[in-house]
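ok trying again, last paste got cut off:
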Amino acid sequence: MKKEKVVATLAMGVVAGGVAVGGTSTVHAETLDENTENTVQAPEETEAPADPETKEEAKDQLDRAQEKENEAKQDSDQAKADYDAAKEDEDKKQAEADQTQKDIDQAEKDAQDAFDQAQKDAQDAADQAKADADKAAEDQKKAEQAEKDAQAALEEQEKAEQDAQQKADQTTTDETQESVDQKKNDLDKANKDLEDAKAEDAKKQEELDEAKKNESSAEQDKADAQDKVDQAESDVKDAEKDADAAKKDAETAKDLYDTASNAADKDSKYAQAKKDAEEAGAAVKAQQTVTDNAKKDLDAKKNALEDAKKGLAEAKVNADAAALAEQQKKVDAAQKEYSDAFDALIAANSKLDELTADYQKKVSAAETAKAEMDAAQSNADQKENAQNTAKAEMDAKKDAVSKSESNMSDAQNSKANAESNAEKAKNELDAAKAALDAAKAAAEEAKKQEALGSKGFFDSIGETAASDLFSQGDYPDKTNMGAEDDATSLKNMLYALDFIEKSNELRRANNLEEFKISARAMAAAQYQANASLHTEDHTFQFGYGENLAWGMDDPEIAYMAWYDSEKDSTILSERLHYLALVSANNTVTGFGLCYNRTNPDLYSSCESQVFGSVNDEDEGYCYTVAEFRALLQAYIDKLTKAQTDLDKAQADYDAKLAAYNAAQDEVAKWDALLKQYQNEKSVNEDALKQATEAYNNAVQELNKAKADLDSKTTAYETAQNAVAESASAVDAAKENIASCKQVSDQKENALTAAKAERDQLLDKLTESVIAMTGDKNAKVETNYEYHQVCNECGEDFGYGPDAIEAVGDHSAVTGHSYSSVKKAVGYKIVTASGTQVIKNLSKTDADKALADIQKAIADGQTAVDAAQATYDNAVKKLAADQQTAKEKNDYLAQLNKNIADLKKDMEAKQAVADQKAAALKEKQTALADAKAELKQKEDALAKAKESVEKLQAEKDTTAQKVAAKSAAVAPLQKAYEAAKASLNAYQNAQNALKKAKENVSAAKSAVEAAKKDVAAKKQAVKEKDKAYTDACGVLAIAKNITLADAMKTPITEEGFTYLNDYVTKINSAKAAYETAKADLAKAKENTAVKKVAYEEAAAKHAETLADLVIAKANYQKFVDAEKKAEEEKKAEEEKKAEEVKKAEEAKKAEEAKKAETVKKEQQSGGATLTASTGSIAKDNEKGTTITKAGSVATGDTTPIGILMALAAGSFGVLEETVRRKKRQ
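nice, full thing came through this time. structure:
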């Protein structure tokens, strides 16, 4: 074998498997990438060292090869370690470069975010400043309007004061508080006299009612007593009847019992029944004795049968053992035939080994030629591929130049179109911006209007009088105009109409005119709902009637309380809500609804419905609910539409802005692409020139490679012919093996069948042993004896002292040596209680003994069956006698039971008679008690009637007194009410005048405060306008600052210099990235160098390994030859020495052997006989080596021999051989 073949094989193991042969170093997976292609130079082709002539030359060759292999391995391991370290350093540098790139990206992102945030902050500040300025202007307008409102309120209050003064002047009275109090005292005294009279009258009425109640109760008591008397008389009559009947039944039962008892004593049939029962019992006792005797006889015969069956078990064991011994002889014969066939198979296999080795050499040579041809083919393919690649590259470069020219033309046209589109998008964006600004103004106005709540609505429909109500009255501070929970919110106002709809539904059900709505009534209801939420009472601010509720924000619940729960009441004070809803005079209404979501001390909501008349001039125009709802909904829709229009305008603007930005991006994209295509054209023209030169070179290289391939192909065909001739010889050897294998299979099958039958007989014997001993753990083992056998002539002198003496005599006469040989002579039973030897009978004798035992068992079974029949008949007779005795005793027991039943019936009926007599006596006593109670009740009724008549006369007198007192109260009541009304009218007029003067003073203060607020609001407008101008200046600066500009020139604008820090971070990250790239390039260069060094060292190590394998094989040949010669010489010397020793010490050896034989026989034990007992393992007498599956029994244990064995093992012949050997 040439060295390069070994090297190529081992080197392939290094690269593909990652492990060098003989070493433990690993190779990183990265070494398999495209950079590793063709980096390992093939070692120079050299011849293997010449075969040594002597063992010393072989040892020197082995030592040198081992030393070189150790050095090469150290170099390879060190190169591997250097390469791994370089690769690890490269990975680290790559990670550092990647991280610095990420740092750049993050720094640029952070910087851009900071610049964007700066612009956003400036924009937000400007927007906020604008909002503040707008709000300040709005506040100024509100303050100016508040000043006007305060002035108007002052004028109104001054007019109200004049009206109050005029009304006070017109209102006079003759009454004083003293005169009114005197009339009140006179009325109170008359009322007290009336109440005293009524109390006395009521007391007499109570006494009269109680007396009448007692009279009625007495009458009922008398009636109840009479009922008791009547019932008691009826009960006495019934009890007398029951007692008489029970007495007669008892007398009749006694007569029946006496008659039956006397008859039994005189009846002969009763005496005969008693006698029959006694005789039947005696018959049962006699038959029981017969049955017991039959049972004893049956048991005796069964015991005899069982003893016979035990003998059967032992006979079966002897018969099964005899059959097993006979079958074992057949197994031994089949084993010998199989061993002979197997030896022939081993010899044929050895021949195949020789032919296979020759075949492998020729295959190796053919593989080498094939590899060279394949390499030449691969080289030619590579050259052809290179030529095709070069041509394709050249064609591609031509296409690239054409494509670059086409791309330039397309880019110029696309850029022109993009610029046109950008101009169009800019115009559309400007138009959308103008529309958005207009929509924002409209939406802002709508928000302001919505914030005015119902006031804004009232103003929009010209109901300013309704709007003015919210600044009047005692509780203007309780209304938070337009707030979400306030009654003035448009949402709550719209919901309030549902309540009015519900009230109209109720009016329609009562055939009443539906309520109409006035703006003033709605404003009043909202005002009062807001106030009453806090006061939890009516406020009565604007002269309307009012229904109030708290926490009833559902129409059904509210009107259930106001209407359903009150309509059926008869008390006026409990029907006021109901009456307000159904009053024909109430024709105008308003409804207010507000909520509380923050103060746990107040109700969750307040509901106010006010009522007025359409005839009241202050109400103005009155609307139907549908009219009012339509106006309000249209107002809300108008406000909502402004926001919707704004959203649409904003969306349109955003879309136009995006379109404009996209158009700008498109212009920039095509401008960049145009420049790119211009550069690409220049680059592609240079590349085309280079590709054309490369193609011409590739054509020349391909022609050289094809000439080399033709030469290598001829050499490979020659090697293939040699392999074919060798393969024919191998095939012939395989056919011979197949023939030997067929014979061996037949013999093995015969042996297997014989063993299977033997194993079945062993199982059968074991079952018989278990049946005989009753021990499920009992085992059958081979029984051995140590026989004295001549080593020369093979004569067997038997077992025991006589055999030892006989073999000794034989040895003395013939000079033959002898041995004590262990021989199987039968079987024995092993149980926990001991060991029992099975009789060693012939199969014929054992079968005859078994047949005799089986006949004895059959005879015993016949005797048992006869005894069983006798016993069964006796049992049946006993059962019949027992039944007869039972029937006689049952009849006698029935006669006795009949007499006992008559006696029991007599006693029961006498007991009933006694009970009925006692019950009659109890009823007679109850009748006497009832008559006495009736007399008491009649006396009590007479007294009650007398008391009622007396109290009725007294009640008539008190009623007359009440009528007289009541007549005296009426004129006094009328006089008091007239005086009180006159005085109250005067006092109210004076209080109203006082209140009007206080309102005028408060209104004047409000006007002054409003003027001051206007001045403050004007100053605030100036300040907010200046702040907005400053914010716009900052925003303009922010918009002009960009990251790209800052990367070129540092920012100097005040408030924005902090952004320079982000630029510094980007520059630092880029500098770090450049450093990391340089370090990575150096690391990659170092890794490549280390990799080449490692691959060269690995290839060198593989070459030294090949030399070491060859050297070991050469040295082992000399070692094996010396060992064989020494063993043959030693065997010859030992044989001669043994013969001399035997002749000189024959007698001494004979005596020693006799003593040893006796000792072994005393100590001998038996191995357990199992299913494999008697199997024969093929020994190694002929030197054949049996190896594991997959190897070859060549007998050559050198490394090179093992390699050849592995190659030959692919035919799978010896794997089957080993499988069979193992199965024996």
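cool. The beta strands are 516-518, 545-550, 588-595, 605-612, 622-623, 779-790, 796-799, 818-831, 834-837. Residues 779-830 form one domain.
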